[in-house]
Amino acid sequence: MDTNFNTQSKRSPEELLLDFMDAIWKPPYNLDKIDGFVTEDYTLYSSGNIIEGRDSYIEWAKEFHKKLIGATTDTRDIIYNESENKVVSRWVCHGKNNGIFDLSPDGKPISFTGIAIWEIKDNLLSKCWVERGNYKFNPS
User: Fold this and answer.
1) What pTM did the predictor assign?
2) At residue 108, what are phi and psi to the nearest 5 degrees?
3) What is the per-residue DSSP string for 54-101?
4) Structural Rg of the chain based on CA atoms
5) 37 in a domain, yes or no?
6) Burial of 42 by CB count in 10 Å (0-12 exposed, 13-18 middle, 19+ buried)?
7) Whose C-alpha in 14, 82, 108, 109 is 20 to 30 A from the C-alpha of 70?
8) What pLDDT digit, counting tens, does each position of 61-92 carry?
9) What is the rounded distance in angstroms from the CA atom of residue 106 to the CA atom of residue 96?
10) Are 118 and 86 in contact (CB under 8 A)?
11) Residue 2 lies in a domain
């Protein structure tokens, strides 16, 4: 994994988040660069689940990408606080259903919206709380 990525220069919360979304949540999913974005003890709170630790998060992301083929998250808005230790984004995620949300895999286009709040520590994302809206099938 690329461990020197986060030491190059301090990124604004917006730059950190957009770089993270491009590398991890848009194809080709460069999970090998995750060290440059999240702390070793990164914690994700999503849909009643708690994923603790960078390695667990990587495994969770791999499974997510298997269940939503071509998953792409498009960021719509980003705001962050003056001390730059919290950043919030509003986004839309879309792809093809391969069992996402415990649905029967059918390959249909599907999308959902969400809002995420991240805590930033040492120029890395350290915690994330995700609230997502209901999914909808999109016409192909």
Assistant:
1) 0.88
2) -75, 145
3) HHHHHHHHHHHHHHEEEEEEEEEEEEE-TTSSEEEEEEEEEEEESSGG
4) 15
5) yes
6) buried
7) 14
8) 999 999 999 999 999 999 999 999 999 999 99
9) 8
10) yes
11) no
Contact assessment for residue 50 and residue 56, using Cβ atoms and an 8 Å cutoff: no
Q: Which amino acid is at 123?
A: N
Burial class (CB in 10 A: 0-12, 13-18, 19+), 81: exposed
Q: Which of 12, 53, 11, 18 is nearest to 35 (CA)?
A: 53
Q: Return the closest-CA partner of residue 100 out of 53, 140, 124, 135.
A: 135
Is 5 domain-assigned?
A: no
Total number of domains in the chain? 1
Overall average pLDDT of the 110-114 stretch: 97
Q: Tell whether 1 is covered by a domain.
A: no
For residue 1, CA distances in Å to 20, 76, 122 come to 15, 29, 18
- Contact criterion met (CB below 8 Å) for 50 and 3: no
Structural domain harbouring 56: 10-137
CATH of the domain at 133: 3.10.450.50
